[in-house]
């Protein structure tokens, strides 16, 4: 089924609504990483900048818990942004609503799981690898579908 542009970007289109919903969840998730980093820094009194450390009369130091959260946030920035583009391309192919919603949900769950098993409650490998790979595979699938659909 191929939708016209005005139907594709209509709030009546369940795929477009799911795209907007899950993208909003992912944006909030990425925003929460900054707050989590600050919380962990303060809890561990680990400040990277001299001006921040002065407030607590400490020298700037690094902390493994803070660094884990920062690395998880960096991983989000490296993966979620390209997902947004791949998901948009996929949306433009008029995919099956069930499959599209399942992919959007699964990617979002995988990104949340990645943060939980890496930065919140450290779980041994392969938990982090699996969470990352699921999201990576979904992004690749969507990008491939878009590329094939729009091949000139």
Automatic annotation (TrEMBL):
Entry-linked SUPFAM superfamilies: MAPEG domain-like
UniProt KW keywords: Acetylation, Endoplasmic reticulum, Membrane, Mitochondrion, Mitochondrion outer membrane, Transferase, Transmembrane, Transmembrane helix
Topology of this chain in the membrane: Multi-pass membrane protein
Enzyme nomenclature, EC number: 2.5.1.18
Spans traversing the lipid bilayer: 20-40, 80-98, 104-123, 130-151
Predominant localisation class: endoplasmic reticulum
Top enzyme category: transferase
Entry GO CC: endoplasmic reticulum membrane; mitochondrial outer membrane
Localization in the cell: Endoplasmic reticulum membrane; Mitochondrion outer membrane
Assembly information from the UniProt record: Homotrimer; The trimer binds only one molecule of glutathione.
Family under the similarity heading: Belongs to the MAPEG family.
Protein task: Conjugation of reduced glutathione to a wide number of exogenous and endogenous hydrophobic electrophiles.
Record protein name field: Microsomal glutathione S-transferase 1
């Amino acid at each position: 089924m191929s939708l016209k542009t005005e139907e594709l970007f209509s709030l009546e289109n369940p795929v477009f609504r799911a795209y907007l919903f899950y993208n909003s969840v992912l944006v909030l998730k990425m925003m929460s990483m900054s707050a989590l980093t600050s919380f962990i820094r303060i809890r561990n009194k680990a400040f990277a900048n001299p001006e921040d450390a002065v407030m607590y009369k400490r020298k700037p130091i690094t902390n493994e818990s803070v660094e884990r959260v920062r690395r998880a946030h960096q991983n989000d920035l490296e993966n979620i942004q390209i997902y947004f583009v791949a998901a948009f391309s996929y949306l433009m192919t008029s995919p099956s609503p069930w499959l599209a919603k399942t992919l959007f949900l699964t990617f979002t769950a995988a990104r949340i799981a990645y943060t939980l098993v890496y930065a919140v409650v450290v779980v041994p490998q392969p938990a982090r690898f699996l969470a990352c790979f699921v999201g990576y595979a979904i992004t690749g699938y969507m990008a491939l579908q878009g590329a094939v659909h729009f091949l000139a």
